[in-house]
UniProtKB/TrEMBL annotation, chain A:
Keywords: ATP-binding, Nucleotide-binding, Transport. InterPro entries: AAA+_ATPase (IPR003593), ABC_transp_ATP-bind (IPR050319), ABC_transporter-like_ATP-bd (IPR003439), ABC_transporter-like_CS (IPR017871), Oligopep_ABC_C (IPR013563), P-loop_NTPase (IPR027417). Belongs to the ABC transporter superfamily. The keyword Oxidoreductase does not apply. The keyword Transport applies. It comes from Glycomyces niveus. It comes from the Bacteria. This is ABC transporter ATP-binding protein.
TrEMBL record, chain B:
GO terms for molecular function: ATP binding. Transmembrane segments: none annotated. NCBIfam families: oligo_HPY (TIGR01727). This is ABC transporter ATP-binding protein. Keywords: ATP-binding, Cell membrane, Membrane, Nucleotide-binding, Transport. The keyword Nucleotide-binding applies. It is found in: Cell membrane. Pfam families: ABC_tran, oligo_HPY. It is a peripheral membrane protein. Gene3D superfamilies: P-loop containing nucleotide triphosphate hydrolases. Residues 4-291 form the ABC transporter domain.
Length: 352, 358
């Protein structure tokens, strides 16, 4: 809250008319969020009297990415791949073991205590389970003004005014202010979750599975809402989801995670048109398409087995134990993270 | 005559009606889908067929008179239409917490709903079996996998001891679990989600049932594991000729698995058709809305979605008009003027405006 206006590296991405900055000076603007080699390892402890650390679950094991202001980065992967931990570590809700996170030029990973707390107003999160993330004893007014109170923004009347404006933005009437979370449907609750994240007018919103708990017809409403809000408030999103179609729909750039690492990254058009990593290919071929003609003629890559344990990942390429194309080299050498085509990065020894 | 014919099934919990006159049929070796969103009654339908709903105090058995509307059922589905009105105020009959079930579910010539509990128990697990959504809560956490499979084999096939374990291992092998003998001694928490679902399928197919009901069998699983499980189910249907009733909310799963589809909304079938027909020419605005709500991998990127407005809470009773009318973009006055009928034979829909729409 204190430094952003004077920082020369941050071209006005906090204003509410982001088009000026992001559209005009596209090439020059540094990315809003830069993550370098982020690692989050959780210790595995054994022992009753004396606890010893016997190993680490490498939930996130060296992930780097950047998101331009006003852009949307979609992170996909299956359960246990570390995508949620990554999202939480970016917001410092999880303490990173190593690596750096920079938001608008400020190093988030270096912040501590009060400065970190104040910094959180710039980065907010939308959670998967809208009921579990809203306090059942708070009415909507309290839920929405809470972040403002925490950060000491405005008077009571101003906070209420802002709450009404934000409710309007997410498509809920003013009359809901006095109501409690249990009185809403799943879709409305998710709107409230989004409204709460918006209250501080953050730069970055991490959406962790924003629609996976919702019914199909409601999913579409919430996805459209996220799109509209991005334009209206100049938001930058990190969308974490397991549903490839949802990620494709929302994102400009997509990264695929497997067992704590990125295996492929490209803009959403080319990753779906020309997937290069065998895991991405398998994922895409596994998504059922709502079209019987397409389904009948499809070639499926059925992966064998389950995800290996992230406490003891396979040597070399982590995907080799399930990869239909694996060869000897895959067990010996870890594939480098290379640019296979312009803007299309992949971690695989082969050009598939 | 189909293997399973559900006719005008109605289930009410006290005053709230979950299933409001659903009819469909499942043929041997076919996969029939029940599709809809939460609260449409698809799971309750399957539980009613399996006789797994808690019984209300006044049991239905003695008066299926008005339920079994005598209509030709040759084409299979879609007979519910003519049922005169929505469920008669069921006050008192469904006991507290119990379900009041009416209608017929004829399996191989026998109405399952009229069977005594003991007779139903003899069939359940043997002639018809079920796979549930959440494999962890459907398996007993303190009993080894092996015991949970041999239990079924003992009860319905009279296998004991080594013979039973050997058969159990074969079953695990059949559903693609490596090292089956070791797995037999393990507990559910030692298996991954996909493995647990395979165990459930192994239990379900232990007695080679003629009908398998799968209630959201892959919803809790990752896509790559989902693909494995769907492949396994597909294989069962093809090799054993099992009839599969597939309950799901995922139209992608429907497109890949089903032969016939019934779309449910607010306790009724609103559209039913062979799968290709349904996707080529969706007729009911709800089906159209569902299809428009899904982001698809094979359409141009950033194609805007066309969601259905409102939520299932915005509903009117079927006897007053179309329950979907409050959310429908094509709503007109005939929609709220009495009960819409299910029209059409092969491709049936319950929309009075359908002609104008098409």
């Amino acid at each position: 809250m204190s430094t952003e206006q004077t920082d020369p590296h941050v071209p006005a991405q906090r204003t509410e008319e982001p088009d000026l900055s992001s559209a005009v000076s596209d090439a020059a603007a540094p990315p809003l969020l830069e993550v370098e080699d982020l690692k989050v390892h959780f210790p595995i402890r054994r022992g009753i009297v004396v606890e010893r650390t016997v190993g680490h679950v490498r939930a996130v094991d060296g992930v780097g990415l950047s998101i331009d202001a006003g852009g949307t980065y979609g992170l996909v992967g299956e359960s246990g791949c570390g995508k949620t931990t990554f999202g939480r570590a970016v917001l410092r809700l999880e303490e990173p073991t190593a690596g750096r996170v920079r938001l608008g030029g400020d190093e988030v990973t270096a912040l501590k205590g009060e400065r970190l707390r104040r910094y959180r107003s710039k980065m907010q999160m939308v959670f998967q389970d809208p009921l579990g993330s809203l306090n059942p004893r708070h009415n909507v007014d309290m839920l929405l003004s809470e972040p403002l109170k925490v950060h000491g923004v405005g008077s009571k009347a101003e906070r209420r005014k802002l709450a009404v404006e934000t409710l309007d933005a997410v498509g809920l009437p003013k009359s809901v202010l006095e109501r409690f979370p249990h009185e809403f449907s799943g879709g409305q609750r998710q709107r409230l979750g989004i409204a709460r994240a918006l209250m501080l007018r953050p730069d970055l919103i991490v959406c962790d599975e924003p629609v996976s708990a919702l019914d199909v017809s409601i999913q579409a409403q919430v996805m459209n809402l996220l799109d509209e809000l991005q334009d209206e408030f100049g938001l930058t999103y990190l969308v974490i989801a397991h549903d490839l179609a949802v990620v494709r729909h929302l994102s400009d750039r997509v990264g695929v995670m497997y067992l704590g690492k990125l295996v492929e990254e490209a803009d959403s058009e080319s990753i779906y048109e020309h997937p290069r990593h065998p895991y991405t290919k398998a994922l895409l071929s596994a998504v059922p398409q709502p079209d019987p003609e397409v389904e009948a003629g499809r070639e499926r890559i059925i992966l064998k087995g389950d995800l290996p344990s992230p406490a003891n990942p396979p040597s070399g390429c982590r995907f080799r134990t399930r990869c239909p194309w694996a060869e000897d080299i895959c067990a010996e050498v870890e594939p480098e993270w290379r640019e296979a085509a312009s803007g299309h990065k992949v971690a695989c020894h082969f050009d598939l | 005559m189909s293997l399973l014919e559900v006719e005008d099934l109605r289930v009410a919990f006290g005053a709230s009606v979950a299933v409001d006159g659903v009819s469909f049929s499942v043929d041997e070796g076919k996969v029939v889908g029940l599709v809809g969103e939460s609260g449409c009654g698809k799971s309750v339908t399957s539980l009613a067929v399996m006789g797994l709903l808690p019984k209300g105090r006044g049991r239905r058995a003695r008066q299926p008179v008005q339920a079994a509307v005598s209509e030709p059922v040759d084409g299979g589905l879609k007979t519910a239409a003519a049922a005169p009105q929505a469920i008669p105020a069921s006050g008192g009959r469904g006991g507290r917490g119990g379900a009041d079930v009416q209608g017929r579910a004829v399996f191989d010539g026998v109405d399952l709903l009229s069977l005594a509990p003991a007779a139903m128990r003899r069939r359940r697990g043997k002639d018809l079996a079920m796979v549930f959504q959440d494999p962890l809560s459907s398996l007993n956490p303190v009993v080894p996998i092996g015991r949970q499979i041999t239990e079924v084999l003992e009860r319905h096939r009279g296998l004991k001891g080594d013979k039973a374990s050997k058969e159990a291992a074969l079953l695990l092998d059949r559903v693609g679990i490596p090292d089956p003998y070791r797995r037999l001694r393990e507990y559910p928490h030692q298996l991954s989600g996909g493995m647990r679902q395979r165990v459930l399928i192994a239990i379900a197919v232990a007695c080679a049932p003629r009908l398998l009901i799968a209630d959201e069998p892959t919803t809790a699983l990752d896509v790559t594991i989902q693909a494995q499980i769907l492949e396994l189910l597909r294989d069962l249907v093809e090799t054993e000729g099992t009839a599969l009733l597939m309950i799901t909310h995922d139209l992608g799963v429907v497109a890949g698995m089903c032969d016939e589809v019934n779309v449910l909304y607010s306790g009724r079938v609103v559209e039913s058709a062979p799968v290709r027909e349904l996707f080529r020419k969706p007729t009911h605005p709800y089906t159209i809305g569902l299809l428009g709500s899904i982001p698809r991998l094979d359409l141009p990127i950033h194609e805007p979605l066309t969601p259905i407005r409102g939520s299932i809470a915005d509903v009117i009773r079927w006897r007053d008009g179309c329950a979907f009318a409050p959310r429908c973009d094509r709503v007109a006055s005939p929609c709220v003027d009495g009960e819409p009928a299910l029209v059409g034979a092969v491709h049936a829909h319950r929309c009075v405006m359908a002609e104008e729409v098409a």
